[in-house]
Fold this protein.
Amino acid sequence: MLRINNLEVVYQKIIIALRGISLDVPEGKIVALLGSNGAGKSTTLKAVSGLLAGDGGQIIDGSIEFQGEVIDGITPDALVRKGIFLSMEGRRIFKGLTVEENLTAGAYTRKDRLNIKGDIEKIYEYFPKLKVLNNRKAGFLSGGEQQMLAIGRGLMAKPKLLLLDEPSLGIAPLLVKEIFQNIKKIKQEEGMSILVVEQNANVALSIADYGYIMENGRVVMHGESAEILANKDISEHYLGIGNENSGKEKAFRRRQRVVW
Amino acid sequence: MIFFFQMLINGIVVGSIYGLVALGFVLIYRASGALNLANGEFVIFGPYICLMLMTALQVPFLVALLITLIFSAILGLAVERIVVRPLQNAPVISVIMATIGLSSLLAGAVHMIWGHSTKTFPPVFPQTPLNIGGIIVTPVYLWSFIVVLVLLIIFSIFFKYSKIGLAIRAVADDQQAASSMGMSVKFVYAATWTIAAIVAAIGGVLIGNINGVNPTMASIGLTVLPVVILGGLDSVIGAIIGGFAIGILQNMAGGYLDPLVGGGLKDVVPFIIVLLILMLRPHGLFGSRGIERV
């Protein structure tokens, strides 16, 4: 459904953020994009949703295809109409608007205005907390509630491909689990494809079908989620998953990597 | 006492017009963070065109007003397209400087086309003043007040419930997030400048009917500045209440203090009050401090 080919992006014409990454999001699947800070995960999502220009970024090589059509160079609002919706990092809900207005804003490009009321109710079923707060200004919500709102706002656009940028950022671990379970449920019920960027690899891989690991603007590893989780080497190097006792071993492996 | 009420009513009427003009100012600030310092020139273009249509071409008032509004909308769109859009990614201060240049340009154009003398509107509203319990209210004042009130109600409904209103508020809140919703920031900018130019023209026509039209009317752009600062730069309700407050203060000062010092205080008092209020409330009476999560 989404195919990125050898994509290269620079910021301010000098800082290289992506050095030729390729990835695939198959129809109806959840794909997790993992990696440390500055690996280029958010840049990838912004490139797909056409929002690079606002940050001074530029695609210099490679291509992005959505349902077989090349989509780089298309304006953000046209991309939303085509069915790609990015829920940005840091939630970015409209603080001065009420919860309900935020959800309505998500449906901005939709033509079927009559169904919006019903769809808002559906979001309230996924996230019952939002219903209680529906008339509150979104800026006064807690971090977790804001994240639910940000995801709900994305669903209101009825996208074919939902891009989620760090939905776990700054949220209590228990709530993170709840939100991710909800994401999985939503995917099954709405039948959309999801590309989720995460630092919290464990929880992301627990719902994803497929995972990509990025480092320094490149994809260094990809495979089925179960495969990645099972591979001890990878989970310790890139994802910080490992048991406490393997400290020594870990240090050895790191050193070995530097020698490479 | 009657004198007091007389001043109060004058203040309320003039203040409501200030509020209307300030609304355009606030809209542009909220959407793009820029101050439109050419707002005063937006105000004078309207009445001059309306007047020209009525006197030279003998067009009836309502038709002339409609044409004036269409022209103002085009003026607003053109300014957004030619002056503001090329500076979209430039610092906000560049946009503000550009509006200063624009104001000189438009002021010069007004002088060139229509000259310096004060022109009066042919009587549009009934002339016989109403006498309400000893207080004299001319129909112009009453009508201006009604028009402003209706407009303000229409605008608040527009912002609260319409799709474009929602987009304007969303863009004001977070531009990048709004464009990720599929909202076109360019469209929202164009809409705010158009609305600002239209409300400025309506305000100008009303003031023109009350006081006559001359180029110094552009100073309302300067008077509106304390109005919006008083109300809080980003608050629509603040602009309206600030408008009333400044209008009333100005007329009270004009009525009671000017005779004592020989005139001139009318224009100074609003600024003094604004200074005092800003010392106590730096964000204005209704301005948002921004919602911060701690």
